[in-house]
Amino acid sequence: MLLADEKVAFLEELRQSVRAVCKAFSDTYWREIDEHQAYPTEFVKALTDAGFLAALIPEEYGGSGLGITEASVILEEINRSGGNSGACHAQMYTMGTILRHGSDNQKRMYLPKIADGSLRLQAFGVTEPNTGTDTTNLKTTAVRQGDHYIVNGQKVFISRTEHSDLMILLVRTTPVEQVTKKSEGLSVLLVDLREAVGNGLEIRPIKTMMNHSTTELFIENLKVPVENLIGEEGKGFRYILDGMNAERILIASECIGDGRWFIERATNYANDRVIFNRPISQNQGIQFPIARAFINIEAADLMRVKAAQLFDEGKSCGAEANMSKLLAADASWEAANVTLQTHGGYGFATEYDIERKFKETRLYQVAPISTNLILSFVGEHVLKMPKSY
Amino acid sequence: MNIFVLVKRTFDTEEKIVVTGGAIQEDGAEFIINPYDEYAIEEAIQVRDAQGGEVTVVTLGGEDAEKQLRTALAMGADKAVLINTEDDLDELDQFSAAYILAEYLKDKEADLILGGNVAIDGGSGQVGPRVAELLGINYVTTITKLEIDGKTVKIVRDVEGDSEVLEAELPLLVTAQQGLNEPRYPSLPGIMKAKKKPLEELELDDLDIDEDDVKAKTTTVEIYLPAQKVAGRVLEGDLSDQVKELVSLLHSEAKVV
Ligand SMILES: Cc1cc2nc3c(=O)[nH]c(=O)nc-3n(C[C@H](O)[C@H](O)[C@H](O)COP(=O)(O)OP(=O)(O)OC[C@H]3O[C@@H](n4cnc5c(N)ncnc54)[C@H](O)[C@@H]3O)c2cc1C
């Protein structure tokens, strides 16, 4: 299952180039951003200017037309450098909904600007306060009135809305009672946040454990032009599912990047820190957990590569994408915990950056999909056990 | 404008370097474009963008150096040339490198040739000036500013921390000092375009060079890492006792008085 030589060389070149961009953004930069719960505007600009966030956009629309394998390496390297892809990963893949299901007109109108960064589409509104994981039960509605949809409802934990020009919004266009399956009657709207805010849309930031620019949305009689419907009315849930595998693989890659960063920090610290007249790494109680966490990162990486390859070959990869996300999120969390333990009290001091990354990587157990839902996916769809919910 | 940049692949001195058996261990070492050559590449691209023309990056070495050439192409150079000496020569010194490069460049009608001020591995700073001598053109080393107006080139060069302002005529060879510019990193579209740019590979035969004519004139006797710094010693006690101890240590241990 080895990748062809040329591809390996290209991926290595890609890694080096992403590293070169990230090098200008030191631990201090990320630490200050974290302290002020600020958005890393300069970092995102550097990455955008260097074209990395347009990796997945086809060349005809101004991107580089690369696959998920390459995209995953880009995000991995950002996290590997100590940075946080969470600030901008969605600019890379949210456009997939337009690319796969948008009209020619929509593609021509939006994709080139998303590619050059002049238009930011990095907000994705699905989760709601009263329905959470039970997505198809969501309560936000859009009712057609002439040339517009009138949208009403509420969303929660919608990230980067304050740093995005457009938002993909999942709404119910046909009431549940009128559809045969709950997954029908949902639609995807493209909301222009620049016009919507103050005109039916209110954004309220949510303070969270880690810096993630996430928000709550209150939607009251928001008018969205009918031409901003993506694909067909009522098929929206399938469109959202279509993007999930890509997202799973990319999030897995960020976890792998985090994991590698943690292992490096833990190893260096354990070798340098001398207690009882010897480096603490000489103690099996310190050394073995680091080694085990490393092994688990490497194993998760293999599943990630497998999933990405299947994806890029256009083959079905739902199981592998989900499994790679679970393995990688577990492995990065294990590595985070081990690294914190290895650093003793210093791990809690912000200037060592461990607690920051520890908080950041913990998120991936819950969002964008929680571990339980992956287990239920594998139980039901791979192992053919009964649906558990 | 016909611009050439001389580029060297070197190990990254920011990474750990291991010396065994009088040679630097290649496995495990990281390889980069010599940082001073990066300034040269960046300047060449800027001159081309302002004046038009073409930038060709040239390196000497083995197959592995293709990677650094690709990076230069991804930064924006138009063409790359690898003069592969792997099969013909075991060792290259400043003399051989300059000779081969000059043979390659002699019929290229270069307007401007740029190189780094030194390579961070050998650190001789000789190759650029030697190439210019062999080609019979002017050269200016350690430049920090370059302005071209027609055939006239205005240059600021670094002289041990001071600046010297010079004027020269094209064709010209210059070597870049830190501060000349801020080298760009390759963008993703740059990397994609580089895949399609020409990378020519030449051997000594192609340049009609006889290997005996380019045999290194110097030999490397030994390679070693600088001695590890040991912790200093802090004297304690009465000031007069400390002075006495210091004098005695300078005498008995350091043997300098
Ligand atoms: C920082 C952050 C950023 C986010 N960004 C976005 C965003 O940009 N866009 C967006 O749409 N959403 C976003 N989310 C929301 C995220 O996707 C949800 O939090 C997640 O899907 C879980 O939904 P919930 O919080 O409502 O939990 P709930 O659905 O209430 O679930 C709570 C717990 O119960 C478990 N559970 C629920 N049902 C089952 C079951 N049947 N079997 C087993 N276990 C079950 C869950 O796994 C979870 O652990 C973000 C969340 C966070 C924290």
TrEMBL record, chain A:
Task: List, for all copies, the residue spans of the domain called Acyl-CoA oxidase/dehydrogenase middle.
Answer: 123-221
Origin: domain of life: Bacteria
Molecular function terms, GO-annotated: acyl-CoA dehydrogenase activity; flavin adenine dinucleotide binding
Residue ranges occupied by any Acyl-CoA dehydrogenase/oxidase N-terminal domain in the UniProt entry? 12-117
Query: Domain Acyl-CoA dehydrogenase/oxidase C-terminal, which positions?
Result: 234-367
Q: InterPro entries, from UniProt?
A: Acyl-CoA_DH_CS, Acyl-CoA_Oxase/DH_mid-dom, Acyl-CoA_Oxase/DH_mid-dom_sf, AcylCo_DH-like_C, AcylCo_DH/oxidase_C, AcylCoA_DH/ox_N, AcylCoA_DH/ox_N_sf, AcylCoA_DH/oxidase_NM_dom_sf
Q: Which Pfam families match?
A: Acyl-CoA_dh_1 (PF00441), Acyl-CoA_dh_M (PF02770), Acyl-CoA_dh_N (PF02771)
Q: Which UniProt keywords apply?
A: FAD, Flavoprotein, Oxidoreductase
List cofactor names only: FAD
Name the family the entry cites. Belongs to the acyl-CoA dehydrogenase family.
What is the name of this protein? Answer: Acyl-CoA dehydrogenase
TrEMBL record, chain B:
Among the GO molecular function terms of this UniProt record, one is:
electron transfer activity
Q: Where is the Electron transfer flavoprotein alpha/beta-subunit N-terminal domain?
A: 21-211
Q: Which InterPro entries match?
A: ET-Flavoprotein_bsu_CS, ETF_a/b_N, ETF_b, ETF_beta_N, Rossmann-like_a/b/a_fold
- What family does the database annotate? Belongs to the ETF beta-subunit/FixA family.
Give cofactor(s), names only.
Answer: AMP
The species this protein was found in: Viridibacillus arvi
Give any Pfam family that matches. ETF
Tell me, how does this one assemble? Heterodimer of an alpha and a beta subunit.
Question: What's a BP term from Gene Ontology annotated to this protein?
Answer: carboxylic acid catabolic process
Q: Which GO terms describe its cellular component?
A: cytosol
The entry's function note states:
The electron transfer flavoprotein serves as a specific electron acceptor for other dehydrogenases. It transfers the electrons to the main respiratory chain via ETF-ubiquinone oxidoreductase (ETF dehydrogenase).
- The name of this protein is Electron transfer flavoprotein subunit beta
